[in-house]
Amino acid sequence: MSTRRGEAVALAGLLALAGVTHFAKPRPYDRIVPRALPGPARRWTYASGVVELLVAAALAHPATRRRGGLAAAALFTAVFPANVQMAVDWRRQPPLRRAVAYGRVPLQAPLIWWALRVARARP
């Protein structure tokens, strides 16, 4: 397995795992859906889980990997407000929980970089 293919498969696995957890354990995701979004939080949780699974599938196949990488970068950008919401909501949590919430915010940049790297790779 080439390094770039391995990166794509690893990113697909990460997104697939995240997508599945949106359905298996939706409550933590419901809590970080920005309140400015219309409708119930659970709808957004499930919708983002579906998108994560679709993007994971696109990344897993060489024919759709480039588009999957671009979609993953867009997805990581789109969920940034949820990470900010979590950081704001958890600012009075115990230090470990606060560190997790704050750590998610800058983590988006390397995830976006990774997705774009996968998108640029030759099949």
Architecture overview:
- The chain crosses the membrane at residues 44-63, 70-88.
- This is DoxX family protein.
- The protein has 123 residues and is mostly helical.
- The protein has one domain.
- Helix content is 80%, strand content 0%.
- It has 6 helices and no strands.
- It has helices spanning 3-24, 27-32, 41-60, 65-78, 80-89, 95-120.
- The protein is globular.
- The N and C termini lie close together (12 Å).
- The mean pLDDT is 92.
Write the layout of secondary structure elements.
Layout: H1 3-24, H2 27-32, H3 41-60, H4 65-78, H5 80-89, H6 95-120
Helix pairs in contact: 1-3, 1-6, 3-4, 4-6, 5-6
E-strand count: 0
State the end-to-end CA separation: 12 Å
**How many separate domains?**
1
- What series of H and E elements makes up the topology? HHHHHH
Relevant terms:
123 residues; mainly alpha
Briefly summarize what is shown:
By secondary structure, the chain is an all-alpha fold.
